[in-house]
Specification:
Layout: H1 3-45, H2 51-81, E1 84-91, H3 93-110, E2 113-118, E3 126-128, H4 130-146, E4 152-161, E5 164-171, H5 178-183, H6 199-209, E6 213-219, E7 223-231, E8 241-245
């Protein structure tokens, strides 16, 4: 890595460290607020028949919901901003996807989503940090679930490409317009009420840290296809490779 690129990585890492520290500092008083809201809710619920207590309890519950929303946003931000050291291991991409499907299948069944497996069995190995890559895939699958609130179908397909292997995730959900497609990987951009807008940017950052890339095709009312491409190493390393993801995507 040349000096300019190393300087940029160092700057990103420092920004991530400072932002992460600020987020942690916010979480501490937030936890105190949440605890006291729980205690207040218990006090008012003990005499909920009293009109004043009933109104106060309703207001406390609003504060509790907003505190939880802020807690979720901070957790998502810390996951997005943190510096990760990838532990890369030779991995079968299709097997990795099947492990995710096994994890997600109960939630898919509950949501009325049919999971369709078109995963190839003869792909070359890729180098993955399995835990980090699992998190990236889970963000993509959850995004597909949110696009199909009344159920639907999610197709997962792996296949070889000229310079590596690829994975398609295809849903028949609500789809996205051109403006949403253009901004979908930008941090904090979200069209969902209460969404943090960090799931897809986090997924992209993890995939790109593996030397891969991600693209999206979508039309309103017709569904969405995310395509991930990962490189296949010329030869697998004898030991475990380690790569650091800069803290800001």
């Amino acid at each position: 890595m040349d000096d300019a690129k190393q300087k940029l990585v160092d700057q990103y890492t420092e920004i991530a460290r400072l932002a992460g520290g600020l987020a942690h500092e916010i979480k501490n008083p937030l936890s105190t607020i949440q605890l006291n809201m729980e205690l207040l809710a218990e006090d008012f619920a003990a005499d909920e028949d009293h009109p004043l207590h009933r109104r106060a309890l309703a207001k406390v519950k609003v504060v509790q919901r907003e505190c939880q929303r802020l807690q979720d946003l901070l957790d998502d931000f810390l996951n997005f901003a943190k510096v990760r050291r990838l532990k890369l291991e030779p991995t079968d991409l299709s097997q990795q996807v099947r492990r995710l499907l096994g994890f997600f299948e109960p939630k898919a069944r509950e949501a009325g989503i049919e999971l369709v497996d078109y995963l190839a069995s003869d792909l070359p190995m890729v180098l993955l940090d399995r835990e980090a890559f699992h998190g990236a895939l889970l963000n993509l699958v959850l995004n597909a679930q949110q696009a199909m609130p009344n159920g639907g179908q999610l197709v997962l397909r792996t296949f070889p490409v000229v310079d590596g292997v690829a994975l398609d995730l295809i849903d028949n959900g609500c789809g996205m317009d051109a403006d949403t497609r253009e901004h979908v990987f930008e941090a904090f951009y979200s069209t969902k009420p209460g969404g943090s807008g960090l799931g897809l940017p986090t997924a992209r950052k993890i995939i790109e840290a593996h030397g891969g890339r991600i693209g999206v095709e979508s039309e309103p009312g017709r569904g969405t296809r995310f395509t991930l491409q990962l490189p296949v190493p010329a030869r697998l390393p004898p030991g475990t490779a380690v790569r650091q993801i800069p803290g800001s995507g």
